[in-house]
Amino acid sequence: MSILVVGSVAFDSVETPFGQVDNVLGGSATYFSTSASFFTDVNLVAVVGADFPEEDVRFLAGRNIDLRGLARVPGKTFHWKGKYGYDLNEAQTLETHLNVFESFKPQIPVEYRETEFLFLANIDPELQMDVLKQVGRPRVIACDTMNFWISSKPEALKQVIALVDILIINEGEARQLTKEVNLVKAARQLLALGVKTLVIKRGEYGVLMFSGETVFAVPAYPLEDVFDPTGAGDTFAGGFMGYLANTGDMSEAGIRQAIIFGSVMASFNVEDFSLERMKRLTYPEIEERYRSFKALTQFEELPALKGRPTGE
Amino acid sequence: MSILVVGSVAFDSVETPFGQVDNVLGGSATYFSTSASFFTDVNLVAVVGADFPEEDVRFLAGRNIDLRGLARVPGKTFHWKGKYGYDLNEAQTLETHLNVFESFKPQIPVEYRETEFLFLANIDPELQMDVLKQVGRPRVIACDTMNFWISSKPEALKQVIALVDILIINEGEARQLTKEVNLVKAARQLLALGVKTLVIKRGEYGVLMFSGETVFAVPAYPLEDVFDPTGAGDTFAGGFMGYLANTGDMSEAGIRQAIIFGSVMASFNVEDFSLERMKRLTYPEIEERYRSFKALTQFEELPALKGRPTGE
């Protein structure tokens, strides 16, 4: 089944301790779509400016990402400039030029409105609500957000959260949203808002997933060379949703496998700048990394203890 | 097989956002021994002052912890005072009164010198080396340390590290010791120093274990009520070493199960102040928590992907 994603397509300028790049292809919807396109068909709704090069259009189209909903309007494409310190865990935003994104009003093409899978990438929650009003009844709706919306539009955001099935946010956002430091307490609050599955991304510390009945924890793959974490969260979401849309399996076991595929894709994304690693990525590599996650986390069932030295 | 542990027995005064306690039983060797005593016999070498109450001696003895090596000398027992902020991840030391611990010179009773399992808790590396000179050839030697020794006695510490099989430290210590931010690189350096198994404790983020061939990652158990993390690291080490000494199984699978038992014990320890939770802990609870770790981390093998939407 295909996925509809609404989000940003942008140019990123990124500086890390290991190098820097300027005006490379980025944006939440770009990372999400590229990642998800390894698993399923993707329909992208976003807006770019007149400066968006054919080369980048061809890249997205070449990944079988449908671009009927990618509007091109006069003006400049959204540009983000950020910087990472040595711990690579958090981006410091240096500049944000919304440009054409400032007046973005997502128009969902009629062909996409009965989509089964919908991902609302990190954009203004009022725009996310707009999108929800334009679609029918997707089987699975997931969304992301960021600290900026949590502080500036908390009510609009809560209305969106009440309507989604899956909330994919990071640790800081979970704490900011609920005013709870403890993640179990934060999760309980968010699940009470109507979310069925809460996915908390923790950067180098992995992922925690809470649903009504269970908790699932996956470590991040311990990588030697982490070059650029930009887009890792959206790449995770793309792998996660992409796999779910591929199989349609929304069981606990299926969702857990989707979390692993999301983690697999994110672990590749950070190995190079921008989308470079995904451009070279092959299925054997994806499968090998999945197996590596299994080897990383595998341990045996409760063994029998020899004797009971002290205690009952 | 029994374990010999050399470390501190102390009184702790701890303040957390949820309450505080004064002069409660603590110390690295105390937490380690109590935890390990659920799995095997423990021989404890430490020093306390004249103020150490019979009640606490009875508690340790009641756990089948052999106290022949617990010296009692004139003076006051080691006292530590610390404070945790809301994130509960790191203790801020407010006061350290070494007291009798200042002139501690571990004397290993002759009956312990052929011990198969040795744990050198966090004490002066020169004292750790003293202990190594007094024992024969233990089958498994593990040690812990802290930032204070890494900066004040790095050469002495490296000599100890070269002689141990297992190094159990936290993330910050791994980075400080190797001057590497990246843990894979830090691990490679430490394994090159002679360590066979490196266990990196990451507080609420779990445990990473590196050996020559493999990496194992375990998340921390997501707890709702974390009251007091004091002693969690030593409690982890006690469960880990205790299980290894119980089975003698030093295979990769056995060491992984030991990591889980260490994590199980630490997850209980933080639920209450001091040793209170371990005082009430039962084997059914330990087993249930082990099973919970399995449920927390379990996922299925690589599935077959339906079709290959884009790519080879």
Write the layout of secondary structure elements.
2 copies of one chain form a homodimer.
Chain A: E1 3-6, E2 10-16, E3 19-26, H1 28-36, E4 42-48, H2 54-62, E5 65-72, E6 78-84, E7 91-97, E8 117-120, H3 125-134, E9 140-143, H4 147-152, H5 154-161, E10 166-170, H6 171-178, H7 183-192, E11 197-201, E12 207-211, E13 215-218, H8 232-247, H9 252-269, H10 276-280, H11 283-297
Parallel strand pairs in A: 1-4, 1-8, 2-6, 4-5, 8-9, 9-10, 10-11
Antiparallel strand pairs in A: 2-3, 6-7, 11-12, 12-13
Domain Carbohydrate kinase PfkB (chains A, B): 19-273
Protein name (chains A, B): Adenosine kinase
GO molecular function (chains A, B): kinase activity
Give your account of this protein's structure.
The structure is a homodimer of 312-residue chains. The N and C termini of chain A lie far apart (54 Å). Helix content of chain A is 37%, strand content 24%. The first copy, chain A, contains eleven helices and 13 strands. In chain A, α1 runs parallel beside α8, α6 packs across α7 and α8 runs antiparallel to α9. Chain A is α/β, with parallel strands linked by helices and 312 residues long. The first copy, chain A, has a nine-stranded mixed β-sheet with strand order 5-4-1-8-9-10-11-12-13, with helices on both faces. A four-stranded mixed β-sheet of chain A has the order 3-2-6-7. The model of chain A has no long low-confidence stretch (mean pLDDT 93). The first copy, chain A, has a single domain, classed as Ribokinase (UDP-N-acetylmuramoyl-L-alanine:D-glutamate ligase, 3-Layer(aba) Sandwich), CATH 3.40.1190. At the A-B interface, α7, β13, α8, α9 and α11 of A face α7, β13, α8, α9 and α11 of B. Chains A, B: It comes from Geotalea uraniireducens. Chains A, B: One of its GO terms (molecular function) is kinase activity.
